Amino acid sequence: MKLRNQITAALRSLAKNKMRTFLTMLGIIIGVGSVIAMLAIGQGSRESIQAQIANLGTNLLTVFPSASMTGGVRMEAGSSQRLTLEDYKAIPARCPSVMYSTPVVRVSGQLIANGQNWRTSVWGVYPEYFSIRNLTVESGNFFTAAEDKGAAKVCVIGKTVTTNLFGEGADPVGRQIRVNKIPFTVIGTIGPKGQNAFGQDQDDILIAPFTTVQERMMTVTYIQTIMASAVTESMIPQATDEMTEVLKERHHLGPAEEPDFTIRSQADISSAATATSGILTILLASIASISLLVGGIGIMNIMLVSVTERTREIGIRMGVGARGRDVLLQFLIEALMISLLGGMIGVGIGVLTSWIIANVMKWPVAITLSSIILSFVFSTMIGIFFGWYPARKAANLNPIDALRYE
Amino acid sequence: MDEKIISVKNLVKTYQMGDLEVHALRGIDMDIHRSDFVAIMGKSGSGKSTFMNIIGCLDVPTKGEYLLDGVDVGKMDKNQLAGLRNKKIGFVFQSFNLLSRTSALENVELPLMYNSHITAKEMRDRAMQALSSVGLDSRSHHLPNQLSGGEQQRVAIARALVNDPVVILADEPTGNLDTRTSVEVMDIFQQLNKKGITVVIVTHEPDIAGYTNRNVSFLDGKILKDFRVEKPRIASVELLTIPVIAEEETI
User: Fold this and answer.
1) Distance CA B152, CA A61 (A)
2) Alpha carbon of B231: minimum distance to chain A alpha carbons (Å)
3) What ipTM is given for this predicted complex?
């Protein structure tokens, strides 16, 4: 029998039982639809997590001096004063994998303004810091390299500081804040960043030019840390190596010697988060695949009933010359048609569901072509797999018995 | 009338039913020639249905030789038998055995679907031709349940004809029909036989056997009698005298 005739025959017999065909198909429709929707949700949340991590600055690198020793007693990490501005200056010049970098000095400051006072940490940094941390301007603007050079008494403050000194929703740009009795002019505010991964309030901060803080407030010559960002996340190891080499050389340490500083990155946080959302996607997809599997069993169920119910028909077909192979193919094609058609409708339903989730529930959703192909191929394979047994059963019928079957 | 369409020698069929051996056929010798019209008669259990199944290539004999149109059927496998059924044999059954919810035309096309050398158009044309030869061309798109019993059997005959078989085998073709419709069906067989088509029917009604040219009686798996009918009844003439009864509505 020609394949085209087979397909015609299969479609005819499916059309004869529209309701039953539809109900059988429903299992596959729901299965494929939910696989696509679940994968879309998984992929969407994965992308959104990655975007949030990128916003944290995952390509962030921090150089700490190692712990200082006082009479054999080791102090906390970062307590030594061995990093200098000169150390920092070698980094932008000699590390091509580093995009932005800044020296950092930090001091605790008592702020007084508007008849209120507030204690917060005062950061002295270069303007590059804003790029490294992906900070955005909410109002006013950030300070410039020129203002840093001139040790200008300007600052940028976070939302928590604004709220505590000037009240909820106030715009502090242009106002004065006395920081440890030195008057600073607020020239900008930072867009809210919320808590970081460790629960610290990232908006409770006052950022001022590096030179101003180091020379006017702290009057020290060392720097506490160096912050830098790699060009891309994947270049973090390279950037780390380059910085290690430069700093070791500057500290007159041989290649075999232990460095007197530590470089930390957030790559592990990023990979953990990505892995978590990956697991989430797999979990969602496997739950959805179970419904696809159940749909497949539904096909087998109906096909088995159908073979019994149509024993007479099979007998007639064999009587007029159908070979076992023809009957096998007919039932297999019917099962395949159900799963193929169900798969197609399921793709439509899945895309529609994802769209509804994205637009009505405002969840991040991303449909990928691979998820559509995957679920489609999977549903087709299920059709063949679960259609095989009933088709085999039909093909093995004895024509005489089948013709006599009541 | 010389050419042997069907030739069986010492045909034996034994079924194994648990411990019991059932001897359905105990050595049948018989030749059926081209353009013959044979009625096979006998009580139930006489082996006539088993004989029909074997010459219809639905079953294989336990022993003996069977030549269909000069081809030895005994050595064939299942697929080859299916090919023979498709190309050389046309079946008509007592219970019509039409596919339900499938139009008359599609039912008649069915054997051609299993013949891979035929185009869709050819299929349609030949099916229409077969339907018109049984006088049903106007009802080609009716479903079996919209046709009367006689009409259904005529569709079945058209289906048997469509592949141009060497022999038409009919198993109790009038068993489910009333008198007039039975005669109508026999008329069709007589018309076909006149055109040179070989027809073999199984029946237990002597009346029906009277329309054929040759009667063969089976008893306990053997041939009891085999004789030619001197003056066969002529269905077309009898139809003029049988009153037409309004056909019952099929439910």
Assistant:
1) 87
2) 34
3) 0.91
